[in-house]
Task: structure prediction
Amino acid sequence: PAEEPIRQYYFMAKCREWVRNFEREKGRFPTACVTTFGCQMNARDSEKLSGILEQAGYRLTEDENADFVIFNTCTVRDNANQRVYGRLGELNGYKRRNPDMKIALCGCMMQEPAVIEKLKKSYSFIDLIFGTHNIYKFAELLYASFRQEEMCSFGQKGMIIDIWKDTDKIVEDLPVERKYPFKSGINIMFGCNNFCSYCIVPYVRGRERSRRPEDILREVEGLVGEGYKDITLLGQNVNSYDGGVRFPELLQRIDAIPGDFRIRFMTSHPKDCTQELLDVMARCPKVARHLHLPVQSGSDRVLGEMNRRYTTAKYLDLVAYAKKKMPDLSLTSDIIVGFPGETREDFQQTLDLVREVKYTALYTFLYSRRSGTKAVSFPDPVPPEEKSRWFQELLEVQGKIGEGYMESQVGSIFRVLVEGPGKGEGMLASRNDQNVIVEFPGPAELAGSFAQVEITSAKNWALMGRLTGQGEAR
Ligand code: SAH
Ligand code: SF4
Ligand code: F3S
Result:
């Protein structure tokens, strides 16, 4: 069949035949392991890969010593790539002992031609490679790798490589195997058009494409019907969602879906974050009181060089408005330390901004050169040791602010969604609306449901509390 997704279901059925043969020959089902690197988008894609593997008849496992292993890779910073190469070495060891094992790679790193060259040259034990734009074709590629084996039973069998430069396609209704039964991310859009000068994502994820609102609403309704309680709308910049309606309207429509659940979204780019969006957040009871608004730097000069297209003044105005509208809002952010040409003065302005905003949590990154991006050609005179010192300094400043935030929450009562066992004996781990981890003693059966908890003490990684009810009110 030529039409998607029917074509892919056809190949899933073909794969199932192959799996049945495997089972007949070996007396057991083949196992498959999906390992995710990178962001929530990748985690979401991995759920699609798992869904297809499951449909094909594989038994899913977390153990990488499996019959089929796929790494869904990330390339946003160089250390993400290095981890993949390291882990591939381990897989090769497993494969030597299990010659039937198949190894596949997909995800953002595969969209870089230099990576493919390196894999072809030095990692010839890999069976299948595809990219971010044709992940919907996974069943077809998996089947091709079985056929490849049949066709090449004499001599060296080759790697199947299928990478596309870009796509305007969105294929709906493929199987998914969601990681949790109570919380899930869902894509509202794919790709990014922003080209921040340090960032490789637009090159590996392609141009922006938005899903149709009716497809999104149908998916959310389905999840709510299945009992999901926490749904995160995913996009590199959800504020540029354009599926006929814009993001604030979409958010309102999702909020209007009947049921007891909460809505999160990420990521919101400050240049497109509007008062209208913040008003909608404040008005919609299901939208969580958490805003991840990555600032990247507190220096207007650096923001300009980063091509972020907002100023710190505009950012701080947004933050002030958001806090006025939602006093219980939790703000988090991403910051890059050591962007090419960043001076001590620029960095000082970042520290000042962090002190002023008082984030609940910060995700901090040392600048990493990504080939193909604009910033690669910028002069970068600050030595790495100096950048590391600044990085430490930022961690210390935020460490105190984060502690202060956690302390200030003692005595509050939150509605939390219980996720499962906590760190301590008999403890449950949960998250409040603000996305802060809350641990409290309670029965394991609460997993997957809302509860009301009073905060009794604070640690730097979590709030500790006691159960006060199985909470309706927020
Ligand atoms: N779309 C999101 C971010 C996706 S990448 C946004 O625009 O906010 C997640 C974070 O990784 C970015 O916010 C940035 O802080 C960091 N990052 C991206 N490229 C980087 C690089 N080359 N070096 C260091 N950090 C980087
Ligand atoms: Fe990268 Fe900027 Fe796009 Fe975020 S908005 S993915 S940082 S280019
Ligand atoms: Fe990494 Fe790709 Fe996400 S590069 S951060 S997995 S979009």
